C-alpha cells in the first residue's frame, strides 16, 4: 500500500557515516533512504550574550537546503535575502530538541553549533537533521572529554522520526511521496530513555482523533528506539 | 499553588467583544485574562497565485505584538527589518489551524486574511489569536452568507488553549507567570467536535512521559469546549 | 457642507482614556471621532549613544498602523521589511514635537519612548498621535515625580491639529473624507501657551495664498486650545 | 552678526550651470554658496502603475548625498542597505513640490524623474535641490516641446529657500554654520507667481510666535523671487 | 618546499564522481585534494527576461560555502541577509566562464543553472567549481541530446586552475596553506583547445613582473590540459 | 576604424582637476574623455577591527554611479537596498589595487577611504577610479606629511587602463562604444615602476590567444606610463 512497498511500521534504511569533513569538531552524513543530510558540529569558547557568565553551555542549530536538493530547484536563501519561515521554524526545533539532551552545567560555558545541510531531500529532513545532528554533537563532546576539558558526560541520546496518516493508515517515517499526500503529519522527538521532548502533530486536510494520535505515538516510540541504536553504533 | 490562585483545571475568564473596528469585515477583541488580542478579518476577491483558478478559497493569518504589549518594550519588527522567527512560526500556525475548520470549496475562490495584533500580553497569545481569529472569520463569512455570495456555510468552530506542567502539575491555560517557569508547554488546537487539528508539546527544561501527555490532552479538551461556547455566544 | 455636517470651525469629539495597558509606564487611547490611536510611554534608564553622559533626557517616538486600521488592508511593514517613507516622516515629527515641550535638563539622563499605534484611522492620525502621545508622556513623568526621581516638572503641554482647505473653505480637523479631497492640508503643532512648534502646510492639487495660510493658523490655534483642555482633564 | 558676514536678508550667491552631463534630458549644477547639487532629469514613456491609463504625466524625485559631501564622511546609503529617514523625507518633498508646478494633463502620460545629488553640502541642500531640479525639469520639457511631443507648456516656476531664526534674528538662506545653531528652521516652497506650495517651520530648541512666522514668510517671498529670476536666466 | 611536498608543477589529485544527487539533471562531486565541491545542473525552459524571445540559451551559476566547510565556521549568508562580495564575484566568474564554452544558438532558448556548493574548502574553490560545473553542465546537455531536444552539441570543454607565486616560486594549483601565504595569486580559465577565457592575476603583498606572469601562464596551460582529460573521462 | 577615430594605441585625453570639494582631505575630478569620476579621500584615525593594534595603515575604497551617469537611468542602489555585484567587485578591486602602492608601516595606524563616484560614464570607469583615486590618496597623504604626522612617504604611483580586442584588433583605453562590442576586455593595474598589480582579461563572446594577451599587455604598459605622468603633474 505504501509507495515504497514498506510495511506500515517499517522505517527506511538508516546509514550514518561519521568524520565526513576534516574541519568540523564532529560531523556525519545521515541517510534516511533518499534523504541525505550533512551535519557538522562547531565548538567555540564564545557563547551568546544571554549565556555569558552563567557557567552554562549552549547548543544551537542552523538548517539549510542546497538549491537542487529537491525535485525542482529552490531559490537560494542567501539570494532571497533571508531565511524563509519554514527554515527558521526547523532550525529552532533542532536546537531546542538537542538542548533537551544536554546537561548544560556539565558542558560548561562553551557553545556548540550544529549545522544541518540537506544534500538530497525525500521527506523527513528535520527529523534526519535532529538524529544526525546529535551524532555530530556526540563526536564533538567526545573530543572535549578526551582532552579532559569536560569530566562528566553532558549528553543523553536524542532522536526524531516522523509519523503520519497516509491513505487512512498510521505509518512510520514518511517519505516525500507519502508526506505530500498525508492527511496528518507528525514529528516526534524523544530521548533515548523514551521520555518525550517534543511532539508536533498537524492536520493537513484531515483532522485526527485521540485514538489515531496514540497509534502514531506507538510507531514513533518504536522508530526512535531503532534510531538510537544506529546513533550509538555510528559513534563507537 | 498557581500564582493566580486558579485551580489546576481553571481557565482564565474569557471575553470576546465583536465589531470593534469599523473597517474590517469581521473583528473582535478577545481577552483571556490579561492577554488582549485584536483580531480582524479582511475579505478580498484576489487570491494567492497558487490558488488562482482552482475555485478554492484561502484563509491566511498574520500576527504581531505592539511594542509595549509586554513587560519590557520589544523592538518593533518593522524597524528590525523583518519578522522574527517566533512571529513567523505563530502566524503560520494560526493560518494552518483556521484553514482546518474551513470547507474551501464552499468558501469559493476568495481570500480572508486574519490579523491578530496583541495589545497586551500575559501568556497564551497564539491560542487567544486562534480562538479570536475564528470569531473574526465567522463574522466575515456571515456577511458573505447574508449577501448570498456563499450558500453553504464553510465553517466549523476552531479554538485553541495552552496547557503545561507547572511545578510538576498539569495545568490549563498558562499565564505568563506560569509559562516562564513551566517545564513542559503545549498548545492544543481542536475543532468544535473534538477532532484534533494540531498538538504541540515541548519540553522546556524537563522532558515528559506519555502519561503526562495524556493528562494535558484531557485538560485541553475541556478547555477548548468552553472556548467554543464563548465563540458561539459572541457571534450570535 | 462638510461630509460630517460639522461647522467649518468644529473639531470632532475628543475622548482620551488613560491607563489602557498594564505594562506601560503611561498609556492612553485617544479618539478623535473615528480615529483611534493607542499611545504608550516606555521609561528606560538607557539613553541613545549621542546623549550618553550629557545629563540630558531624551524623548523619541515610533508610529505604526495596524494592517486593517484602514478601509482596505495595508501591508504590514514588518512583512515589507522596512518602515515606509510616510511612517518614518510621521514618527520623526512626533518625537521632534514632543521634545519641544520637554525641559531635557529637568528630565535627567533617561529616555522615554512613545509608541503610537493606530487602531482605526479616519484622518489626522499624526495629530492624534502627538496629542495622545503627550498624555502618555505626562503620565510616565508623573510616576517619576511621585517617586522623587525628578523634582522639577519638565513638561509643557503639546498638542496638534490638522486644518486644510476643503471645497475652497478653511476647515478645522479634517476627517478622511475631507483629507482625501482637500486642496491644501496642514498640520499645526503648538505648545499650551500658544507658541508654535511646527507648521506644515502642503498644496495637494491647489496652491494657497498667505491670507489662506493665516486663516488656517487661526483655526489651528482655537483647536489646539481645546485639545490642551482635554489633555489636562484626562491626566487629572 | 552672521558667520558669513551677510545681511539678515541676503541670500548666498546663486549660480546655475546647465547641460552638465551628456546623457540626461535636462541637467544643471546649482551652487548656493558652497552648497553644490547636481540635478538631472530623466524622461521616460513608462509611468508608475497608479498613473497608467490616466493620460496624466508624473514627476518624481530622488535625492542623495555623496559620502564626502559633508564635513565628516557619511556612510553610503547603498552600503547601509536603505535610504535613511531624512533622505526619504527630502525626496518626497522635492517630488511633491515640483508636481505643484506641473499641469499633468498638458504633460501627457510620461514620467520625468529628477535626481538631485549633493556634491558638496553647506546647508539648504533640499531647497537647492528643488530650485535646481526645476531647471532640469524645464530643460527636459523644452525638448518635448521642440519635438512637438507636447504643445502646451505644462510648467510654472517653482523655487525654494530656507529661512530661520538665528541668534534671535530672522535670516534668509541659512548656511551650515547658521543651520546647526538656529532655534527655528523653515523651508518655503513657492511658485513663481507667489502662491505657496509648501511651508515647513520647525522649532529646534526654541519655539516661535506668529509674528516671527510672518517675518520668515516675508524673507522667503523675497528670496524665492530672486531664485526664479536665476532659474529663468539659466534656461534661456 | 611546498607544504604538501608537491613539486612546483604538480597538481593535487583530481577526482570527479558523477550522478551524486537523484534530482538534478546533471551533477558531480569534484575533489581537488581536500577541496570538495558539489556541482548540480538544473535545466529549465524558463529564461531570464533579457534573453526571452531571442532563441538563445542561457547558462548561469550560483556559489555557496557550507558554514563549516572552512577551518573556522563562517556565518551562513542566508542569516547575514545577503551574499557577500566574494560570493557574488565568484558566481559571476563561474557563469561567465561556462558561457564561453557554450554555443547559445545550438543550446536553444532554455536555461541551465549550475549550483556549486563547497562541502570542504582547502583553496581553489572557484576553479574547482568551474571545472566541476562544466561536468554537471555536460551531463545535463547530454540528456537534452538523448531526447533529441538538441541536435548540435553546444559545448566545448572549459576548465580552471589557480597558480601563484609562493615563497618566490611559481607553483601550480595552490592549496589553502599556500594560498594564504602567496605573494601573487591567479586564476586561469581556458577552453579545451587552449584558448584563454579569463585570466586574473592579483598581487597579494608582492607585485609581479611580466616574466613571472608568463611562467604562471605556462603552468596553467599544463594544469588545465590535465583537468580537461579528467572531465572527459568522468563524462563517459 | 575606432568609433572615436583614435589610433589603436591612442588613449583618450586625460584631465585631472584637484581640490574639487572643500571637505575632503584629498579630491580630484578625473576625466578620461567623457568618463568623469569624482574621487575623494577621507582620513580617519579609526581603523577596521582586523587592523587595530597592528600599527599598520589601511586604505579602502567605495564606488558608485549617479543614477543618470549612464545613457538610460539606472536604479539608485540605496533604493534597491544593496550594492549590486558589479559595484562590489569594482570597489574591492580599487581598494586592493591602491593598497599595492602603499607601505602600510610607513602610513601608520590610520585609515584612508577613497570614494569614487561616477558623474558621467563612457567606459572604463573602474580604471579611471583607480587612477583618480590614487591622486586623491596622494593629496591626503601630502597633508599628513606636511603636518609631520608621517615622515617616510608611504606611496608609489598606481594607475590603471583598459585594453581589449575590438573588431579583431588590440586597442587601448576602450570607450563605451568599443566596450559594448569588444570580444575581449581587460583591466591592467600597474605601479609606476612597471610592476604588475592586477591583470584581468575576460572573453566577452570571443576567446583569446596568448599572443593577443601579450599585445594587450604592451598597450597597457604604454598607457599606464602616460597616466602616471598625468597623476604626478596634477599633484604638483
Automatic annotation (TrEMBL), chains A, B, C, D, E, F:
Subunit structure comment from the entry: Homohexameric ring arranged as a trimer of dimers.
UniProt keyword Phosphoprotein, yes or no: no
Record-linked InterPro entries: ExoRNase_PH_dom1, ExoRNase_PH_dom2, ExoRNase_PH_dom2_sf, PNPase/RNase_PH_dom_sf, Ribosomal_Su5_D2-typ_SF, RNase_PH, RNase_PH_bac-type, RNase_PH_CS
Reaction catalysis annotation: tRNA(n+1) + phosphate = tRNA(n) + a ribonucleoside 5'-diphosphate
Annotated positions binding phosphate: 86, 124-126
Function: Phosphorolytic 3'-5' exoribonuclease that plays an important role in tRNA 3'-end maturation. Removes nucleotide residues following the 3'-CCA terminus of tRNAs; can also add nucleotides to the ends of RNA molecules by using nucleoside diphosphates as substrates, but this may not be physiologically important. Probably plays a role in initiation of 16S rRNA degradation (leading to ribosome degradation) during starvation.
Phylogenetic placement of the source organism: Bacteria, Pseudomonadati, Pseudomonadota, Alphaproteobacteria, Rhodobacterales
Designated name of the protein: Ribonuclease PH
Residues in Exoribonuclease phosphorolytic domain copies: 11-140, 156-222
Alphabetically ordered keywords of this record: Nucleotidyltransferase, RNA-binding, rRNA processing, Transferase, tRNA processing, tRNA-binding
Signal peptide region: none
Record-annotated membrane-spanning stretches: none
Superkingdom of the organism of origin: Bacteria
GO BP: rRNA 3'-end processing; rRNA catabolic process; tRNA processing
EC numbers: 2.7.7.56
Class of this enzyme: transferase
Family affiliation: Belongs to the RNase PH family.
Organism of derivation: Alloyangia pacifica
Stored HAMAP family: RNase_PH
Molecular functions per Gene Ontology: 3'-5'-RNA exonuclease activity; tRNA binding; tRNA nucleotidyltransferase activity
Gene3D superfamilies given in the database record: GHMP Kinase, N-terminal domain
Amino acid at each position: 500500500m505504501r509507495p515504497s512497498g514498506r510495511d506500515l511500521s517499517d522505517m527506511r534504511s538508516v546509514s550514518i557515516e561519521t568524520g565526513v569533513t576534516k574541519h568540523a569538531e564532529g560531523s556525519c552524513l545521515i541517510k534516511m533512504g533518499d534523504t541525505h543530510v550533512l551535519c557538522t558540529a562547531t565548538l567555540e569558547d564564545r557563547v551568546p550574550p544571554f549565556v555569558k557568565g552563567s557557567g552554562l553551555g549552549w547548543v544551537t542549530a542552523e538548517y539549510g537546503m542546497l538549491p537542487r536538493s529537491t525535485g525542482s530547484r529552490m531559490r537560494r536563501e542567501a539570494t532571497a535575502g533571508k531565511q524563509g519561515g519554514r527554515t527558521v521554524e526547523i532550525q529552532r526545533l533542532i536546537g531546542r530538541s538537542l538542548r533537551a539532551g544536554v546537561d548544560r552545567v556539565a558542558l560548561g560555558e562553551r557553545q556548540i553549533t550544529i549545522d544541518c545541510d540537506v544534500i538530497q531531500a525525500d521527506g523527513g529532513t528535520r527529523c534526519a537533521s535532529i538524529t544526525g545532528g546529535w551524532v555530530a554533537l556526540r563526536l564533538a563532546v567526545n573530543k572535549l572529554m578526551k582532552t579532559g576539558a569536560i569530566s562528566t558526560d553532558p549528553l543523553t541520546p536524542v532522536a526524531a522520526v516522523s509519523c503520519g496518516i497516509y491513505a487512512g493508515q498510521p505509518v512510520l517515517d514518511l517519505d516525500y511521496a507519502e508526506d505530500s499526500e498525508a492527511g496528518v503529519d507528525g514529528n516526534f522527538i524523544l530521548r533515548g530513555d523514551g521520555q518525550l521532548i517534543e511532539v508536533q502533530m498537524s492536520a493537513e486536510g484531515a483532522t485526527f482523533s485521540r485514538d489515531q494520535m496514540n497509534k502514531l505515538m506507538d510507531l514513533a516510540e518504536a522508530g526512535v528506539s531503532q534510531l538510537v541504536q544506529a546513533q550509538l553504533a555510528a559513534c563507537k
